[in-house]
Amino acid sequence: QVGAFRHKANALKLQQRLANMFGAPVQIFSPTTHGKLYRVNIGPITAVATADKISSRLKNIGINPSKHNGV
Prior knowledge:
The protein is built from 2 helices and 3 strands. The protein is α+β, with helices and mostly antiparallel strands.
């Protein structure tokens, strides 16, 4: 996960920015009944080296991603 937003427009802006930057799939997950935020995720990413590279680039632009599914 690279971001979570109350307003969908903000999630869409980040999605477009990251898709242009990485060329990787960027998904937005709609709020659930328990969560009220639009969550932005990059992936799936299967290669650890790719995940590390993307993570490093995200940190360079001020985004601290959380890792899921062991990658």
